[in-house]
Amino acid sequence: MKVKLTILESKCRGGYHKAGDTYIVEDLCPPICHELWQCIYPNVYTLLNNGDLDYGSTREKKFQFRCPDEGRVLIEGKVIE
Question: Which residues pair with 7 in a beta bridge?
């Protein structure tokens, strides 16, 4: 099981993320901002372990999350084969 992380929007103050950046997570933390990773890790862990998440009014194998720094970055995570 793998999770693909995609930066959908970015106004990152630290310049770490740009729209369109992608990361594949199988096991280890990808090279993303630690604050953002800390927030999304529970969702990534759930997906890596074949779980699903609330996504609007449905349950899906994906999520979207805004950075805790005033929502400057929007990231999407989804299961890929």
Answer: 75
